[in-house]
Amino acid sequence: MQSGDLALTLLVAVIAISIRLFAVTLSAKMSYLSSKEVKQRLRQMIYEKLLRLGTSYKEQVKTSEVVQVAVEGVDQLETYFGSYLPQFFYAMIAPLTLYIVLCFVSVPCAVVLLICVPLIPVSIVVVQRWAKKLLAKYWGQYTHLAIPSLRICRVLRP
């Protein structure tokens, strides 16, 4: 290998790493900003709904459940918007990119990958639906944990 080839390869590697660093940094910033905006908007919507209901909201939902949803439930969305959605779109775009590149090498292999690779996110969605049903059961139990602490706070309040 000549020194000119080595220099060119090194230059291409540095440019590729720089582009990747920029893209990862921008992606992290955008995912943070989008999750922040969604959390703020959802908390605002919960607050406005409680204001519309007035004190009668206690007849429809428990205070502990409202607190849990407004705080921890909304915070869980950061993971969804910050990690899950970007990875989901990557998982959908990657097979197409792979297909295009692999078409130049072997068309039958490209077709097989184009068909099979999208099945991975589909299987993940199926598992998540099953997990969502399971977690819904535990969420109800979790919200009931806050009830004794709220009663203690009301008793201790002057």
Q: Overview of this structure, please?
A:
The protein has 158 residues and is mainly alpha-helical. It has five helices and no strands. The protein starts with a helix and ends with a helix. It has one domain (3-156). The chain has helices at residues 3-53, 57-60, 63-103, 107-116, 119-156.
How are the SSEs placed, and which strands pair?
Blueprint lengths: L2 H51 L3 H4 L2 H41 L3 H10 L2 H38 L2
List keywords for this structure.
158 residues, mainly alpha, 5 helices, 91% helix
- What portion of the residues fall into strands of 2 or more residues? under 5%
Rounded to the nearest angstrom, the radius of gyration is 25 Å
Distance between the termini: 82 Å
**3D shape:** elongated
How many domains, as an integer? 1
Average pLDDT over all residues: 80
Helix-strand topology string: HHHHH
Number of extended strands: 0
Low-pLDDT sequence parts: none
SS-based class: mainly alpha
Helix content: over 70%
Biggest sheet details: none
- Number of distinct helices: 5
